[in-house]
Design a protein that fits this description.
2 domains; 4-stranded antiparallel sheet; elongated; alpha+beta; 221 residues; Jelly Rolls; 2 helices
Length: 221
């Protein structure tokens, strides 16, 4: 009976939250918008994003309400985690803008969640006191908050891992390119040295032949 009560409570919690998590690829000079719909006034809207790769790991964003007014925006942000109250019923628009990049593609992880502030009432079994039900509710909501914290930490570490991996790949490419340039410079310097030595050697031979010819002519005369 206790297990079924907890299960009903967890299902109730899940039914009060509508979340969408996506990874989107923005090409250069692209602006992409996504929407979250509220069915009641004063619902909580959670907005999270993180640039996983591309360019300097930054993006412009803008959040617009159903009335067209800008709720929040930012330029060249790497990541953000916001929660605000949707006072109006309708579609809230979340836009990412990569028009500042001329060639860099960017991968953005983001999550939109709409949740009702009203708590779900846990069905109490016969004979249980209100204090026991209240304690169970608090425990469930603490577990929910801890799971949310764990999820956000996982996202943070994933973002750090992707950025560090991108930095490693960029450094590796630079090392390879620098090594290739160094090899080409060594080959060019070697070829230049051979050319200079041959030039001076040929010039010396010509001068020696000229002196020998002049000496022979003078002796002959």
């Amino acid at each position: 009976m206790k297990l079924s009560t907890i299960t009903c409570a967890l299902l109730g919690l899940a039914s009060e939250v509508a979340a969408t998590a996506l990874t989107y690829k923005l090409v250069a000079n692209e602006k992409a918008c996504f929407f979250a719909t509220t069915k009641k006034a004063n619902e909580k809207i959670a907005f999270y994003f993180a640039v996983q790769s591309g360019g300097s790991f930054d993006i412009d964003y803008e959040v617009t309400g159903p009335d067209g007014n800008v709720i929040m925006d930012g330029q060249k942000e790497r990541q953000g985690d916001f929660v605000f109250t949707g006072k109006q019923i309708g579609d809230y628009k979340f836009c990412f803008n990569n028009e500042m990049s001329t060639f860099a593609e960017k991968f953005v992880d983001f999550e939109l969640a709409v949740e009702d502030e009203a708590r779900v009432t846990i069905p109490s079994k016969q004979g249980s006191s209100p204090e026991q039900t209240s304690a169970l509710e608090e425990s469930l909501f603490k577990i929910s908050m801890q799971l949310s914290t764990v999820t956000r930490n996982q996202k943070y570490f994933r973002t750090r891992e992707n950025r560090n991996f991108s930095t490693v790949r960029s450094t590796e490419k630079r090392i390879v390119n620098f090594s290739l340039i160094q090899i080409l410079l060594v080959i060019a310097m070697g070829a230049l040295q051979v050319f200079i030595v041959r030039f001076f050697f040929q010039a010396g031979v010509r001068m020696l032949i000229g002196w020998t010819t002049q000496g022979a002519r003078k002796g002959y005369v």
